[in-house]
Amino acid sequence: METRPQARECGGREDVPGRPVTELLSPRETHLGGSTVVRRLLPNLGRRMVGAWCFVDHYGPDDIADEPGMQVPPHPHIGLQTVSWLHQGEVLHRDSLGSLQTVRPRELGLMTAGRAIAHSEETPRAHSRYLHGAQLWVALPDAHRHTAPAFEHHAALPEVAHGGLTATVILGELDGARSPGTVHTPLMGADLTLAEGASARVPLQPDFEYALLTMAGSTEAAGVRLGPGRMLYLGSGRRELDLREDGGPGGGGSSVLLLGGEPFAEKIVMWWNFIGRSTEDITRAREDWAAGTRFGEVHGYGGPRLDAPALPATPLKPRGRER
């Protein structure tokens, strides 16, 4: 028994605040491929992950009527899942398993890289005028990171509707509705649409940490106003979240992605398109990609595959969920 115990703040896990917080994450712009420029929200200065969500890009709405749109050549992945989520446009997915699938708005394209996969993503030749969506990664826990690669496409996802709020459950569960997408850690993702002038209270799990990404319009969340392309980290310890459509330009309501999950306790090495646990994991994956082994081939893409960049001179250090 401690004779002079120190006061401790309980809740959450390790580096996760045991109380609700409001932390705005600023994006950085980067070129994805073709005419697509993305706003990268995760990893971010000061924060690498939200639950097992470890990578978030938001792009558009872009007018691509006379543009090629997204053109991402074949490239490799290990140790993660990719989530393709669209509000407008189409993305044609090809992978080394032989999958060929066009993903459309509010359909789930979920690829599990596991031990190794390669894929390409492109806007089809005949496409809609606008392209708008998000690309997200989920880190696989050590027990599942060597699993067999797989691809899932779910055209119909469960919805929850209350008043002026409609929620599409992308992964995991929200308010009793569960997505058919495969998950390997306790996590959730949902697309929340608020009608013009609507307000809502969304149920949360207090042992999850959460973040919100504004896709369109303006939304006030936990008293913070969010415009398109901004992310708000909410910490943990919340049982509910108040949202209000905040009358963005043009009206018509607003839309946000709610991302949450049990804090990811493992340290990971995330480099290029790989997630491992050591420099050796990453080096081996890069060598296998360069040698044309392990990842298979992506057939049908009209161009060369991506070459891996050079590894840094210093060893890659496994890092936790915060910088």
Structure description:
- The chain has 323 residues and is mainly beta.
- It has a single domain (20-261), classed as Jelly Rolls.
- The protein has one helix at 279-291, and strands spanning 20-25, 28-33, 36-42, 53-63, 71-77, 80-88, 91-95, 100-103, 108-112, 117-122, 130-139, 150-154, 159-162, 165-171, 173-174, 177-178, 187-194, 199-203, 209-216, 219-221, 224-226, 231-235, 240-245, 254-261, 269-271, 274-276.
Summarize the structure.
The chain starts with 19 loop residues before the first strand and ends in a 32-residue tail after the last helix. Helices cover 4% and strands 46% of the residues.
Helical content stands at under 10%
Number of domains: 1
The CATH class label is: Mainly Beta
Q: Give me the side-by-side strand order of the main sheet.
A: 1-22-19-24-17-14-13
Q: If you consult CATH, what is the topology?
A: Jelly Rolls
List the helices and strands in order: EEEEEEEEEEEEEEEEEEEEEEEEEEH
Number of strands: 26
CATH superfamily, please?
A: Jelly Rolls
Main sheet: strands, sense, barrel: 7 strands, antiparallel
Strand residues, percent: over 45%
End-to-end distance, in Å?
Answer: 34 Å
| Rg estimate, integer Å | 20 Å
> Which overall shape is indicated by the principal axes computed on the Cα atoms?
globular
How many H/I helices? 1
CATH architecture: Sandwich
